[in-house]
Task: structure prediction
Amino acid sequence: MRCQTESFMKIRNQPRFRAAGRLALLMLCATSLFAQDENTPHSAEVPNPMGIHTWFIIVAVGAFLAWCISYSLQLQKEALLRRTSREGLLRRKEAYLDEILELNARKEAGTISESQYRRQFNNTKIRLAKVLEQIEKEEREAQETNAREAAKSKR
Result:
């Protein structure tokens, strides 16, 4: 294959390549000669009546998608604030304590197996410990902030 390629590129074939190139250039230039005359009738260009409608649909859909994204971001932000706010933490603490009481009642009633009770009790206890830790952290931060403000007001 390489030998054939090299044989085409030898000097004896160069005049053929030049002739083929000139012929291609001549054909490209000649196409403009065969083009239609400007004075002959041609089809009229009619504006697309749906063009503005298409752009309106594109803009409307884009605006709707932008609104959806901003709304979902706002909901996520509110959920995060609810989860980390003091009221949310206290609500979660009460829910976990209620869940522990319910587990104990179900264990005494015999509606839950011992292994399932232990697993659910440990999971709930771990989640409760995390919530209590967050509540303590917020209380410490609030006390530090109050102490700083008190120190500033004394100055």
User: Anything to note?
Assistant: The CA atoms of residues 27 and 33 lie 10 Å apart.
